[in-house]
Amino acid sequence: MLRTSIAALTFAMIGGVAWAGNLSEPIIAEPLAVPVVPTTIPFDWTGFYVGGQAAVGSVEANGIDGDVEGYGVHAGYLRDLGSFVIGGEMEYMLSTYSVSGNSADLDADSLRLKAIAGYDLGQVMPYATVGVGQTDLSVSGQRAAWTLTKR
Predict the structure, then answer these.
(1) What confidence tens digit (pLDDT) does each residue in 108-127 have?
(2) Contact 119, 126 (CB under 8 A)
(3) What are phi and psi of 10, to 5 degrees?
(4) Measured at the alpha carbon of residue 113, what is the angle toward residues 81 and 99, in degrees to the nearest 5?
(5) Fewer CB under 10 Å: which end of the chain, C or N?
């Protein structure tokens, strides 16, 4: 009886394997294409820009107290050349210096033109500038000086 059971079990396993087949060709699914997302987004520095600046504060030096106010605008253009960025900028600034206990105010009216050269590191750009500037100084409305500076 044991021999019959082992033989029946063996034939059942072989028969099960035989019945596991399929009459048609197997269908092999193509793998789906996974979109590749770049890890860094390319950044281009090329273009025009405009901005403004403001400064408000107080000065204490050699026993003289005063207040400083300054406002200005700047505009420029940058051109991204791959690893390097070049461009130019113009800046206008109007500053007022008031000394406590003195009725005289010093006004500084400045205009600067700058050339810019930088290294493109993606969303960061270290840069250097060189240029010229002109400043008109007036004390209580009277023109005091005119200067031309190189940067």
Answers:
(1) 899 999 999 999 988 899 99
(2) yes
(3) -65, -45
(4) 135
(5) N
Residue-wise pLDDT for 38-79, tens only, equals 666 678 899 999 999 999 988 787 777 888 899 999 999 999
CA dihedral of residues 100, 102, 104, 106 (deg, nearest 10)? -30
Residue 50, H or E segment: strand 47-61
Give residue for tokens 């007022």: 96
Separation CA 114–CA 150 (nearest Å): 10
Nearest Cα to 73, choosing from 48, 85, 59, 90? 90
CATH for 47-150, options being 3.30.479.10, 2.10.10.70, 2.40.50.140, 2.40.128.130: 2.40.128.130
C-alpha Rg value of the chain to the nearest Å: 39
Residues 56 and 95: their CA atoms lie apart, in Å, by: 10
What are the φ and ψ backbone dihedral angles of 36, each rounded to 5 degrees? Answer: -95, 120
Specify the pTM: 0.61
Return d(Cα 115, Cα 130) in angstroms, integer. Answer: 5
* DSSP code, position 25: P
